[in-house]
Design brief:
- The complex is a heterodimer of chains A (about 160) and B (about 150).
- Chain A is an alpha+beta fold and about 160 residues long.
- Chain A is elongated, with a radius of gyration of 20 Å.
- Chain A starts with a helix and ends in an 11-residue tail after the last strand.
- The mean pLDDT of chain A is about 95.
- With about 150 residues, chain B is of the alpha+beta class.
- Chain B is about 40% helix and about 25% strand.
- Chain B has 5 helices and 6 strands.
- The N and C termini of chain B lie close together (about 10 Å).
- Classes of the chains: A alpha+beta (about 160), B alpha+beta (about 150).
- Chains A and B meet through helix 1, helix 2, helix 3, strand 1 and helix 4 of A and helix 1, helix 2, helix 3, strand 1 and helix 4 of B.
- Strand 5 of chain A pairs antiparallel with strand 3 of chain B, so a sheet runs across the interface.
């Protein structure tokens, strides 16, 4: 899908945040210099169809909600089982990300899952549950020790007029 | 936060519809008015409960390359090395983790060459013993939703 200059302006405005008003996309259209709410909604639906826009949503301050533990759990899985296991792992409510990545000699794991819990024990328990369920013998939990940087991804900012 | 706030917060994390009146739609599901829905969302926003409310784009579908990298950085120059890595705007997240590879960061750049250039600069300037480049071969799930109903 081609991302036009007009699209980029809309993307930049959306990345500033959704206005908390009755007709947010009407306000977005105004800010982005688009021809009204209907045009913005239509284009955003096209982006969704193309997988360019995953979704509009809220991201909460999860530590305030008691989610204090985050573990990247990596799994050594035979290639033949990767798709089935990867798909099933998506069902866990404690898992936000499921990615397959290349197996490296220095880090021989194929499936990466981000597991969030109220405590380290919760994360460990979920990893054990999945390991038993999927009969995976080799896996590792890399707990986050310190958040060194977290910035909101902002696309097309380098082109801003 | 009462039960309706918590349900609303879970729903907002799952998806905000791309429609004329998304908050009216949430209200209908919750059995409250659009005005009350907005009042609740605005209050929670004022209470600083949200990191952000906005879009999640797929960079790879928009001409960007994205990847996860892992580095092994010794304790001696850890802080300097991390500062060097963090200064790249293309590096959006960076975490210290408890393992042989102790620094894990994401890179979103305009192409493979740009990623490799950045990693080479990191290798040269941080004394990182190893830097792995681990781009996703398949993405099964991206949904950041923290269940708050048991808060």
């Amino acid at each position: 899908m081609e991302i036009t200059e007009k699209d980029k302006e809309l993307i930049r405005v959306l990345q500033d945040g959704l206005p908390l008003v009755e007709r947010p996309y009407d306000e977005i259209a105004r800010r982005a210099g688009w021809d009204g709410e209907a045009a913005v909604i239509a284009r955003m639906r096209e982006w969704k169809e193309a997988g360019v826009l995953r979704r509009m949503s809220a991201y909460i301050r999860h530590q305030r909600a008691g989610y204090n533990s985050n573990g990247m759990v990596v799994w050594d899985i035979p290639e033949d089982n990767l798709e089935d296991i990867g798909n099933r792992m998506t069902e866990s409510k404690m898992i936000s990300h499921v990615y397959a990545r290349p197996r490296s000699d220095k880090f021989p794991y194929r499936l990466y899952t981000m597991v969030h819990g109220h405590s380290r024990d919760d994360v460990i328990a979920e990893a054990e549950r999945l390991a038993n369920l999927e009969k995976i013998e080799k896996y590792k939990i890399l707990f986050s020790k310190k958040e060194l940087k977290r910035s909101t991804t902002r696309l097309f900012m380098e082109e801003k007029r | 936060m009462d039960d309706i706030d918590k349900k609303l917060m879970n729903m907002l994390q799952e998806e905000i519809p791309v429609t004329e009146r998304p908050f009216a739609e949430f209200g209908e599901k919750l059995g409250i008015s659009e005005a009350e829905t907005l009042e609740r969302v605005r209050r929670m926003d004022e209470e600083d409960r949200f990191r952000r409310i906005g879009p999640s784009f797929a960079p790879r579908k928009m001409g960007y390359t994205s990847t996860l990298c892992a580095a092994r950085i010794s304790t001696e120059n850890f802080d300097d090395a991390v500062s060097f890595i963090n200064k790249y705007p293309q590096i959006t997240h960076n975490y210290e983790r408890d393992d042989f590879f102790n620094v894990w960061f994401t890179v979103i750049a305009r192409g493979e060459e740009e990623v490799e250039r950045i990693l080479d600069e990191i290798r040269e300037n941080t004394g990182a013993e190893e830097v792995l480049n681990l781009p996703a071969t398949h993405i099964f799930k991206i949904l950041v939703q923290f269940d708050v109903e048991d808060m």
